[in-house]
Design brief:
The chain is of the alpha/beta class. It has twelve helices and 13 strands. The chain has a single domain, classed as Aldolase class I (TIM Barrel). It has an eight-stranded parallel barrel with strand order 3-4-7-8-9-10-12-13, surrounded by five helices. A three-stranded antiparallel beta sheet has the order 5-6-11. Strands 1-2 form a two-stranded antiparallel sheet.
Amino acid sequence: MIDSYSFLRPWLFCLDAERAHELTLRNLDRAHNWGILEHFVSRPKSDPRTICGITFPNPVGLAAGLDKDGRHIDALGALGFGFLEIGTVTPRAQPGNPKPRMFRLPEADAIINRMGFNNDGVDACVSRVRRSQFWQSGGIVGLNIGKNARTPIEDAASDYILAMKAVYEIAAYITINISSPNTQNLRALQGEEMLRALLNNITIARNELCDRFGVRKPLFLKIAPDLEQADIDLIADLLLEFGIDAIIATNTTISRTSVMNIKQAHEAGGLSGAPVRVLSTDVIRTLKKRLGDKLPIIGVGGILSGKDAQEKVSAGASLVQLYSGLIYKGPKLVSECINALNR
């Protein structure tokens, strides 16, 4: 494998973070279309894991947020991921928050973003997934869904149900994102009363879709790293009560404790990368203690090495996902984590 990313990174880091992100993905697409991407990535070892009735070729996936609209599925799939999570998508297209809205903190191997669920709408995303060779050839694509910014929080369930209906036929699994800090009041859905009502409505809709399509698609819930232990225990109990199939721990953090003295740390948004590693791992441990083997946990947050991936699994995760680590370490991180977790 040729590690060209270490040479490209200094140039990319001279650009605005969002522009560099888009440029990198476009060039990744070109390399894949030209048939040269395989020269820059290692062929992953086969290490299948069966979770929620899905057999994942390996336990390392792409976290939601990197490819919000499903524009780069084939190129990302060629990097060796065992699965891809696309989104967050909302029922209707929306521009997200004003730019600039993504900031690097290189001293901390971290990123702050306040993207705000910018996407072309769920129908456009579903069309792209259907057209992708990765999906057509059996690659595992999960869809991460959220509510539109203009939808009142009291009506959030209607947006989640609309999005779930749109993705149900093509998604290997569906993730309910209630933990982004970049949509106003969204995290209020993690409270007992609102979460109970949301899960009740979603499970009723899932049962209707199951009858319609003849297949029960797994539902995952993605939570924040900033919850108290009592809140985590409550969420775990509600997931079991309503038959949710797995939990993703965690989203980005609103804490700035570990980056207070770094330039741009004051920017609003969710902090990801190395500073969230311990927070997310602690949430995984708390969930594992509460859930045991009753519900699988997908670990995400601050994975920048194979050792970090092992830490998540040791804490109780069955699978892991990468995002910010790719920005700092490049595609080689995928194979590094797969090798570290190979049984």
